[in-house]
Amino acid sequence: MKIAVGCDHGGFGLKDDILALLRDRGQEIMDMGTDSSDSVDYPDFAGLVCEQVASCACQRGILICGTGIGMSMAANRYKAIRAALCHEIFTARMSREHNDANVLCLGARVIGPGLALEVVKTWLETDFAGGRHLRRIEMFSS
Ligand code: RB5
Q: How remote is the CA of residue 108 from the centroid of ligand 1, in Å?
């Protein structure tokens, strides 16, 4: 599974922690920036990651900003994207099982790196349950 990762200046520090986790797991990564704490606009980086996922160049995306809210709003404007903002384990798991989320959004000013990395692991390791959940996803995907 190839994963595109992007952030704004608010998520820059946490992006490095997440990239280190993904590298440890031997995951293929596309780092779409940003690469410093200089102020940038989060919709630009949401777009770069979502284009990777929508084109199937990457199977999943992870977006980090200060709260995760702007990234999730921007990401969900893309038709093929189901972005989930998750700050604990339960919603990270359910966003995969029930919603087949293909983008995870995180707020680096909301949770610490320890919990964020557990959220990422859970989100990567949980499969979509399919069945009735597929029908429901299809209802808002056409
Ligand atoms: C940037 O200051 C901040 O607005 C951004 O990282 C994010 O939290 C937006 O939703």
A: 10
Here the CATH number for the domain that contains residue 25 is 3.40.1400.10
Domain that holds residue 31: 2-141
pLDDT value, residue 32: 98
| CA of 67, closest atom in ligand 1 | 8
Q: CA dihedral defined by 7, 125, 24, 18, rounded to 10 degrees?
A: 20
Q: Count up the domains in the chain and report the number.
A: 1
Query: Does the active-site annotation cover 65?
Result: yes
Residue 10 neighbours by CB distance under 10 Å: 22
Tokens found for residue 73: 């709003």
Tokens standing for residue 24 = 């440890």
Residues with CB under 6 A from ligand 1: 8, 10, 42, 65-67, 69-70
The model's pLDDT over 1-16, given as tens digits with 9 standing for 90+, comes to 999 999 999 999 999 9
The ligand 1 atom nearest the CA atom of 11: 6
* pLDDT tens, position by position, 79-102: 999 999 999 999 999 999 999 999
Q: For residue range 53-73, list pLDDT tens digits in order.
A: 999 999 999 999 999 999 999
Atom 5 (ligand 1) nearest CA: 66
